[in-house]
Specification:
heterodimer, A: 8-stranded mixed beta sheet, globular, B: alpha/beta, 12 strands
Chain lengths: 1206, 333
């Protein structure tokens, strides 16, 4: 480090380390959110809003686009007109940028795309890290520079920006998603002086000088013919040839400025190594540590870390290798099915095979055998033992080729066996693991801990956080390392000195102490006194504590938090105990630092929050006590992940996944084509709610509202014969059916307590009151019983009752629909989710004949993220068939379902005609002329199809076999295109618009949360005026796009806007009309969301307010009415009775601006009201002339929650 | 004719003051009140408890779901300096002060000793001409005795008096065992004036939904009598200013309050009902009445019918109550 540059040390994650550089070296950032790169764009937006300048004194603009394709196009335009642009992306987003990447590179335009490299969707989507996305862009002409650590994510970002301007070749700078993008590590920050020294302004001016400019007009983007295209494609060769030297030069300059030296290919290890691993990205950290370990034991091994992957400098690579190398293992973090080897491996082979390409003067040359292997896909762990396994393979007489490491491939036999128990010495590095409940603050406290520890001179710290695939009741595991040496390990902790369990129940459901080393210290958040903890531990945990001689401490953190007024927020309490137990620094200093961090984190949340946390910290240590060990006394042990009567696949595959043992599943256990069974969530009894609903049969009016709004499908109704009650388990609650015409029949409402999230929406929806205790309703939240056995007995008996015959169900009202079993149940969505009740309703009404195309987003995650799926089957084995293609193409994907169904139905009808002489005439007529609107008609058609199949089996004709395979399409399939507003309004809008323009019978359900919920609250075109969101931090000023009006403009599209919380009956009506409508239908469904900043318990009230203030007018547009000469536009909600402000003031997304910018907040409120008023006038005009003819006008006035029951 | 008066040491052009209401929550509203002729404006109260509650609620709602799911580690942008706190209120005071030329009286409802004093200091720094302490405390806990409540009030006034030097008015409700004594005590604790009276929250029931409903009804003219009574009794017995609040619907109530002894008469309900321009009607109506009765100076009106000056002081006391009962009996038998 040179003296003139004052470098500061801090602790950041890779995304921030990179974004700090990209922002300061850009004029414009154009972005679109995608995991795990989203934080880079969000930080840039935040800085821009705060007026932070780039190194030239300008505040960069940050623009969110409708897709990554749009972002790349905008970047291309920015570059062509002379400004400096960057973007941040990953995975599918990067794939969408490819066409423009070719253009940008083809025009020799300098830019840097920063990529948090991630898996791409093949057999499944994965948000985790590998190099598949980057590898898909190899031919675009972008240079590719790989960072392997948080420090490098910063440093190589700068080198990329410097090199692109120097060479005019655009750069893709990437680092591993999550492992680097989300890892916090100690790094030296680069000051602006270094940035300015690396990026001389004349290069910026040169770029600006190449801008399209009417003062010096040129033509770009020509179309070229066979005569010159080829030559022109070769014309840029010299620019590419210059890149390696330019990058190397930039690296040297950088070393001069900072003391940190990087090379195109960095070799570490024995100078006379015979076996060398070649790889790039974060795996290098673990590999380098292992190489050192092995070198110390005399093994002649080494590591070649690739930094500049494109253009690939063969000479530099050869020069970096020790001449002694005999075998190379090239590890690719990607998979290229069908190739001879993966891309990096192929390049290494080519580089070694053709020294003439880039001869190296004076280098003796390398002649080595190259063996390729794959590792680390989708953030699969890459551990020292795996590195060891790779070196062992290289030492074998007949090494395995095209191997895999890190999995058990019992199908193709590619995998290397990994030595068990192989560990590196850790020196003075300390390792700690924390098990927390999602959103309990464990992760944020640990991030503060890492910053506190990392800020101590001479101390290095690393934090990595493993999140859950569920959104409600999720778990997190924090992995913290710190010590005097830089932390290079890039794998999870395998042997912890300290293990904390912030949720006592975790000890009963999973392996919490497995990572604890012998003699480790353990901290438990346990109810009651420390003396009483031992008796509450499961048998295997007691055994493990004794076997490993663990030093166990406990605190009743929930009690301490409650006493400090923090509710269930225990993070700072547990953090204080950690510092106290580990003695990392003097207690007083630790507490002062914790309080300082609390002040920083919670300052904006007011003195109350800060003071309460201070109080909690002060109480923590006094309440911490050791747990005296005893003998193994417990009689019970951990619960198995799934019951023994679960289906074979669920026991063999889903169970281990649920238990966190998915890594151990062999290749043969997994479906090769991405096909998984449905109905698996039912086997996962998560028990995440402390309070669950309890039904009061005396008060209940059997209206079905509670079940209708339950987002998790845990409230179900059945009726059964009075006589059956004699067999019911004791205490089974039921009541006489309140409807007329059902004598001797009983009604029961079953709560699935073990699947409930405790969201309490059902209570809010219940219209029945106990007249003696008005605070109580017919359904009330009560503490979940400690003994669940009676609950399970009741449930088992309820499930044994036959489902109500669909033919006898009144589909026209919620009271009737409650008897239809949901085929969407127990999802991992947020507690109180506003989206899932709509999906559940869809599944109840049409699930047994539905095929669902689901756009990527929240609904595809809670719908299809392993280990389990909420999509289920009925007792006949029928249920929704579900698939997710992409984020951007869902409308087209779903249209494809319709095209198949139509095609096959037509073909089936044709074959039926041809085979008619050999079939019963009545059957054929019935099949061909069946009306299939009502459930009874559909069931009748099903019966006919079954009869047809039987008849066909007796006909010896190839057409009979063909017809048998198509016969299912004679029953009307219900095709649903489901997604959020990000899909429908933004990235998938073009496709959706096109599908609507056709006349095919598809049903579109837009779960409109008015924001990108799944990626963490970025603005969409559905975000309303005045709402604050990421990329609309100043509050959105333009009106929400009216997708309903756009669809109505076609004239042939059925359109409805619904809000279950405002008018469930209208929602039900719209779903049924949409499904029955023979052309395209769109339902826009108001979905309250955690990203609105509301108490989710009151989500339905917000829906009602959204309607009553006119923000969300309920309407239906039915083209069939127009055909009958009626006004097709039906306004189902009354003229606004409230102001927008009355609704908005209850949501943080609107309120938060009042504090930061009250004038703008006020202006936006006024503007939002104006938008509503203007809109309402249009709606009334559209509905006005025909309101008398509106048969459902009465719906507007009543039948909503709080009104009279149906 | 001289309508000008002095309230809390502030020179007012006339006695009609716009009291705290939604009208004074925006700068535009305060400007409209000034344009309509308000002699001074009391801005809506800064509620410490509300700020604390909102800060905690914001923390809870904006953190909900954060750091638990890998794709969404947060759901809201970091808004930098945005803090839930008194800033917005203070900025409002500052702007009102800059944009108008009439006295701006801030109002404060604290809940902790620090809240009262810290916020009072900040309000003074923001430029308020005077501070009205909105002593709105509901002794909902039966274990708390009247003396404790009084002590709490007096301590608060004392603490704030120590903390700021701008004039201090105290707005209280009438429910003390001896309001007159309480008024004197408040004055000794440091109040420069009293505002009679605060109207407390009185919930209603929705008998359809069986729910408690918050209600806020605008005051009616009949509500002036309690204030009239105590103003008349206190006039001349307290040193500081007296202001009347509640029940002003026409110039008649203004005149009555002045006759009882008020230095200033505050109104919100009438302005909410009829709009800020009604202020001028109140002022002009007062002038017309004074003119008709031959008053030339508002000082002549003030206290003319107070306890010490009316022909029969007993009219304010128990003897009068008995007479009123008698008259009812005579009428309804």
């Amino acid at each position: 480090m040179t003296a003139e540059h004052q470098l500061s040390v801090t602790t950041l994650d890779g995304n921030e380390a990179c974004a700090r550089i990209a922002y300061r070296l850009s004029e414009i950032c154009v972005i679109y959110p995608i995991t795990p790169s989203s934080p880079m764009g969000e930080l840039a937006d935040q800085w821009s809003n705060a007026g932070r300048q780039n190194i030239w004194g300008d505040v960069p603009s940050v623009v969110e686009m409708q897709s990554e394709a749009g972002a790349a196009g905008a970047v291309h335009g920015v570059l062509q007109t002379g400004a400096l642009a960057t973007t941040f992306t990953a995975s599918q987003g990067l794939l969408l940028m490819i066409p423009n990447m070719y253009k940008i590179a083809g025009e020799l335009t300098p830019t840097v795309f920063h990529v948090a490299a991630r898996a791409v969707a093949g057999q499944a989507l994965s948000i985790f890290g590998d190099h598949q996305d980057v590898m898909a862009t190899r031919p675009t002409g972008f240079a590719q520079l790989a960072s392997a650590s948080v420090q490098e994510a910063q440093d190589l970002a700068l080198i990329a920006h410097a090199a692109t301007l120097a060479t005019r070749v655009p750069f893709l700078h990437f680092f591993d998603g999550f492992r680097t993008s989300h890892e916090m590590n100690t790094l030296e920050l680069l000051p602006d002086t270094v940035l300015s020294a690396m990026v001389p302004e004349e290069l910026v001016l040169a770029h600006r000088g190449r801008a399209l400019d009417p003062d010096a007009p040129v033509l770009r983007g020509t179309a070229q013919n066979p005569d010159v295209y080829f030559q022109a494609r070769e014309a840029a060769n010299p620019w590419y040839a210059a890149v390696p030297a330019a990058v190397a030069g930039a690296m040297e300059r950088f070393a001069g400025l900072t003391g940190r030296r990087y090379r195109l290919f960095d070799y570490t290890g024995d100078p006379e190594a015979e076996r060398v691993i070649v790889l790039m990205g974060s795996g290098a950290g673990t590999a380098a540590e292992t190489v050192e370990h092995l070198n110390a034991r005399g093994e002649k091994v080494g590591l070649l870390q690739v930094r500049l992957f494109r253009p690939f400098d063969a000479g530099a690579m050869r020069a970096a290798l020790p001449p002694t190398v005999r075998r190379l293992a090239v590890l690719d973090r990607t998979k290229e099915p069908g190739s001879v080897a993966e891309p990096l491996c192929l390049d290494v082979i080519a580089a070694l095979a053709s020294p003439a390409v880039n001869p190296v003067d004076g280098h003796p040359g390398v002649s080595a055998e190259v063996i390729g292997g794959r590792y680390g896909l989708s953030s699969k762990e890459f551990t020292p033992a795996m590195v060891r396994a790779v070196f062992d393979n290289l030492a074998a007489e007949e090494p395995k080729r095209s191997f895999t490491v890190g999995i058990d491939d019992d199908v193709s036999g590619t995998s290397l066996s990994v030595p068990a128990g192989f560990r590196l010495e850790r020196g003075e590095t300390f390792q700690a693991v924390f098990h927390g409940l999602g959103a309990d603050g464990t992760v944020s406290a640990n991030k503060n801990t890492i910053k506190i520890i990392g800020s101590r001179p001479g101390t290095h710290a690393q934090g990595y956080f493993v999140y859950d695939s569920k959104k409600a009741g999720s778990r997190t595991v924090s992995h913290l390392r710190f010590g005097p040496d830089p932390i290079r390990s890039t794998c999870l902790i395998e042997e912890a000195d300290f293990v904390a369990c912030h949720q006592f129940d975790f000890l009963h459901t999973g392996d919490v102490l497995g990572l604890a080393r012998r003699g480790a210290r353990v901290l438990l958040n346990a109810p009651g006194s420390a003396e009483g903890v031992w008796a509450q531990l499961p048998r295997s945990v007691q055994r493990e504590i004794l076997d490993k001689n663990l030093d166990v401490w406990a605190i009743d953190a929930y009690r301490v938090a409650r006493e400090a007024g923090l509710g269930r927020r225990i993070n700072t309490i547990m953090q204080t105990c950690f510092f106290q137990l580990m003695g990392i620094m003097p207690a007083e200093e630790a507490i002062a630092q914790i309080k300082e961090a609390i002040g920083r984190s919670y300052r904006r949340k007011g003195p109350e929050v800060v003071e309460r946390n201070f109080a909690a910290v002060d109480r923590a240590i006094a309440n911490l006590a050791p747990v005296p060990p005893d003998e193994v006394t417990a009689t019970s042990d951990r619960r198995p992940p799934v019951p023994e009567d679960a289906p074979e696949f669920v026991r063999r595959v889903t169970g281990p996944l649920l238990a966190g043992r998915g890594d151990a599943l062999p290749v043969s256990a997994l479906p090769a084509d991405g096909t998984w069974p449905t109905g698996t969530a039912a086997w996962e009894k998560r028990n995440i709610a402390d309070f669950v609903p309890e039904w009061d049969p005396e008060i209940c009016i059997q209206c079905g509202q509670c079940g209708a709004v339950c987002p998790h499908g845990v409230i179900r109704a059945k009726f059964f014969d009075d006589a059956g009650l004699a067999d019911a388990p004791s205490g089974f609650p039921s009541a006489p059916v309140s409807a007329r015409g059902f004598p001797d029949t009983r009604y029961t409402l079953q709560i699935y307590a073990e699947d409930c999230t405790g969201c309490a929406l059902c209570v809010d929806a219940c219209p029945a009151r106990n007249i003696e205790r008005p605070a109580e309703r017919a359904i009330n939240m009560r503490p979940k019983p400690a003994d669940l056995e009676p609950v399970r007995r009741h449930l088992a008996w309820f499930e044994g009752l036959p489902d109500v015959d669909r033919g006898h169900v009144d589909f026209s009202n919620i009271r009737g629909v409650q008897y239809l079993p949901p085929l969407f149940e127990f999802s991992g969505a947020c507690a109180g989710c506003g989206e899932t009740p709509y999906l559940k309703l869809l599944s109840q009404l049409f699930g047994d004949r539905a095929v669902i195309a689901n756009a990527t987003g929240c609904s595809s995650i809670y719908g299809g993220n392993l280990p389990t799926t909420p999509w289920a089957k009925n007792h006949e084995g029928r249920g929704p068939a579900w698939s997710n293609s992409l984020f951007e193409d869902n409308a087209e994907f779903g249209l494809g379902f319709r095209l198949s169904a139509d095609q096959h139905r037509r073909h089936a009808e044709q074959l039926l005609g041809e085979l008619a002489p050999r079939l019963e005439p009545d059957l054929v007529d019935g099949l061909l002329q069946a009306v299939q609107d009502e459930e009874s008609e559909i069931r009748e058609q099903r019966r006919r199809v079954a009869a047809l199949r039987e008849a066909l089996a007796r006909i010896d004709d190839p057409r009979a076999m063909r017809l048998a395979s198509l016969a299912r399409h004679l029953v009307r399939h219900s095709i649903w295109l489901v997604g959020g507003d990000g899909w429908a309004y933004d990235i998938g809008y073009g496709g959706l618009d096109h599908v609507l323009s056709l006349e095919r019978d598809v049903n579109v359900l837009v779960l409109d949360t008015e924001v990108y919920s799944n990626t963490g609250g970025q603005a969409s075109k559905s975000t309303p005026t005045a709402a604050v969101a990421k990329f609309a931090a100043g509050g959105k000023s333009v009106a929400k796009k009216d997708l309903a009006l756009q669809a109505i403009a076609y004239g042939h599209v059925y359109v409805a806007r619904v809000a279950l919380g405002a008018n469930p009956q209208q929602t039900l009506l719209a779903f049924r009309e949409a499904e029955r409508y023979p052309g395209p239908s769109v339902i826009l469904a108001y979905s309250h969301c955690i990203a609105h900043g509301i108490n989710m318990e009151h989500g339905l009230r917000q829906q009602k307010l959204a309607v009553s203030c006119g923000h969300w007018p309920l309407m239906r547009y039915n083209p069939l009415l127009a055909e009958q000469g009626e006004v097709p536009f039906l306004l189902d909600s009354p003229r606004p009775t409230k102001r927008f402000r009355d609704y908005a003031s209850r949501e943080m997304r609107y309120r938060v601006l009042e504090a930061s910018d009250p004038d703008r907040a006020e202006w936006l409120m006024t503007r939002a009201q104006e938008h509503i008023d203007r809109h309402w006038r249009i709606y009334e005009e559209m509905a006005g002339r025909g309101t008398e003819a509106n048969p459902y006008r009465h719906l507007a006035a009543g039948d909503s929650f709080g009104g009279k029951p149906a | 004719m001289k309508l000008s008066t002095t309230y809390l040491g502030l020179e007012l052009e006339h006695p009609v003051v716009a009291s705290a209401s939604p009208l004074s929550q925006t700068l535009d509203g305060v400007r409209r009140l000034e344009d309509a002729g308000a002699a001074a404006v009391v801005i809506h109260s800064l509620f410490e408890e509300q700020i604390r509650h909102e800060a905690a609620a914001q923390a809870h709602l904006m953190d909900a779901g954060s750091e638990s799911f890998g794709e969404a580690l947060s759901y809201f942008p970091d808004l930098g300096g945005a803090e839930i706190g008194p800033q917005q209120y203070l900025e409002h005071v500052r702007r009102c002060r800059e944009a108008t030329s009439i006295p701006i009286i801030a109002s404060l409802n604290g809940s902790s000793p620090e809240g009262w004093t810290d916020y009072a200091r900040l309000i003074e720094e923001a430029g308020a001409h005077a501070l009205e302490l909105n002593l709105y405390y509901l002794p909902a806990e039966p274990a708390e005795c009247g003396a404790d409540v009084e002590r709490r009030y007096l301590q608060t006034v004392h603490l704030v008096r120590e903390a700021v030097s701008i004039p201090l008015a105290v707005k209280v409700g009438p429910w003390f065992s001896s309001f007159g004594h309480m008024a004197l005590q408040l004055e000794s604790a440091g109040a420069d004036g009293l505002v009679l009276f605060n109207r407390f929250y009185q919930p209603d029931f929705d008998i359809e939904k069986l729910e408690v409903e918050p209600t806020l009804e605008l005051s009616r003219s009949g509500e002036i009598r309690q204030g009239l009574f105590w103003l008349a009794l206190l006039h001349g017995r307290v040193q500081g200013s007296l202001a009347a609040s509640s029940g002003v619907t026409s110039a008649a109530e203004v005149a009555k309050y002045l006759l009882a002894g008020a230095h200033a008469v505050m109104t919100a309900s009438a302005l909410l009902r009829l709009g800020p321009p009604y202020l001028a009607s109140l002022r002009d109506g007062l002038a017309d009445w004074m003119d008709a009765r031959g008053y030339e100076d508002v000082d002549q009106v003030r206290g003319a019918m107070s306890h010490g000056r009316v022909a029969e002081p007993a009219a304010f006391e128990r003897a009068n109550y008995l007479r009123v009962l008698d008259s009812y009996q005579n009428r309804w038998g």
